[in-house]
Amino acid sequence: MILFKTKITESDVSYGPTDPDELVAEVFALELAKKGYIGVSNAYCQIGRIDRIDWLDVMARARNCSRADFYNVDGSGIGEQHREHYVRCYTKDILTVHPQIYQRMKKYRSQYDLQKLVSREMV
Q: Are 8 and 56 a contacting pair, CB within 8 Å?
């Protein structure tokens, strides 16, 4: 498998194996996606997740607006783009993983994709 170009070394990896094979990388990617981690930085293979219950209030204060501004107009809840923005800009729960693990996590881009995958595994 061809890896994409990154700016990290093996010593920068803070979670998981430093030289995983394909199966191990897939297992770690699925495990991290189930815990709610998403990609933060392609260049540094960093992943993050929402780290606090009041994340919406934190983001509203930072942007000087109301938390109601983050809900979709159609009433379907908080937009996925707002969750991703919080993880990219405000979370403190960030891990650096091996590029193979990071690359496999891209297919679990959203929780919706992950739920489809998990329901398929249950069948």
A: no
- 13-63: pLDDT as tens digits: 999 998 899 999 999 999 998 888 998 998 999 999 999 999 999 999 999
- The reported pLDDT for the residue numbered 86 is 92
The length of the chain, given as a count of residues: 123
Alpha carbon separation from 86 to 55, 96, 106 (Å, rounded): 7, 18, 18
State the amino acid at position 24 in one-letter form. Answer: V
Q: CB 55: neighbour CB atoms within 10 A?
A: 18
Amino acid identity for residue 98 in this structure: H
HEC readout, the chain? CCCCCCCCCHHHCCCCCCCCCHHHHHHHHHHHHHCCCEEEECCCCEEECCCCCCHHHHHHHHHCCCHHHHECCCCCCECHHHHHHHHHHCCCCEEECCHHHHHHHHHHCCHHHHHHHHHHHHC
Instruction: Report the 10 Å Cβ neighbour count for 37.
Output: 24
